[in-house]
Each structure stands twice: as C-alpha cells, then as structure tokens.
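Aim 2 progress update. The chain analyzed this quarter is reproduced below.
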Amino acid sequence: MLFDDTYRTIEKPSEGLFRDRGSKFLAFAYPVNSEADLKNNLAQLRSEHPKANHHCWAMRLSIDRSVFRLNDDGEPSGTAGRPILNTLLSHDLTNLAVVVVRYFGGTLLGVPGLINAYKMATEETLKQAIIIQKTVNDIYTIEFDYLQMNDVMRIIKDDGLTIINQAFDNNCSIRISIRKIQVNQTLSKLSKLNGVITKYDHTM
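Predicted structure tokens:
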C-alpha cells in the first residue's frame, strides 16, 4: 500500500521580517490542526498590531495537503495569500498557517513588488522555523478486563504504540496512538484477545 503517512510541518511558531521601500512585512508561522487554531492566532495578531494595514494569510491542513485557505485581506487579489501559500507548497509543509502583517510605508509596491514581499516575508519566517517530520496517527481506545492487562500491554509494547492516557479500574481503558500504516496489524492482534473492545477515536 503506497500511502505516505508522514508529513512535514513546523515544531513551534516562528517569526520573520521583510522590508521594501518603507513597508514592513512581519511574518508569523504557526503549527495548526484546524481553522479554529488559525482564528485564535489571527485574533491575537490583530490585537497586537491594531495599526497594521493588512493581515494576510495562508494555511494548509491535512496530510494529503488538499485543504488550504488563503486571504488577501484587502491587498490586490492574488498578491498576498497566494504567494504565501505557494511558498508553503514549495517547502512541502502542511498543518501550518503563515500570517503576514503589513505596515504600509507610503510607497506603492505594485503587483510584482507585493507578490515578492509576501513571498520573501514567508521565506524569512520559515528560515527561523524548526521543520519536523510527523507521522499520521489514528487514535483508538482499548477497553478490557483487568485480567487481560498483560496481554494488552504486551501488544502495545511490541508495536511501539504511544499511550495517550489510561484508566485502570475493574474495567480498564487505554487511549493509544497508532501510526496509520500499522493500524491493521495492531487491531488484528488486539481482536484475537477475548472481550477486548477497540474503538476508533480520530486521526491526528
């Protein structure tokens, strides 16, 4: 099965700066997992830079890199969000957003100048970012009887699964993260244990 279950993103937020003819372009890159994350970052930047002329951005989500959004925030169409997005594409990064905050310096840059400025500002923030590779994982909850603890734990250990959280009572439950590529193998092992219930939670 040719499914690439890894993707490149950034470890933590980063900042970059590009200047052109008096205009300042402050670029902020954020790791995001949803549009809600981006909205929070945008709201924060707007409150920190209330006098800026534009807050333009682009975002890529999902590991097949198919989900993207962009916004020119009042700049001429195609001169801001698109160059930001294209820079993310050329670096093959996803699950991140870049917001470029522009302070106008009094000189019009023209369409080529704007495209270049938004691209360069994005490049600057990505230069500062720590690029990491992540695997696509599915989250499952395993429910089992206390007596089966050893069997369940052995599979978790053998398959190198990450435990997110666990609750041990008469009935035990463990939330685990399984790399997408090995889900079937792990689930088939767990299904051989009597009375063990495995429930799909979500993908991250």
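The mean pLDDT is 94. The first helix runs from residue 35 to 48. These observations will guide the mutagenesis experiments scheduled for the next reporting period.
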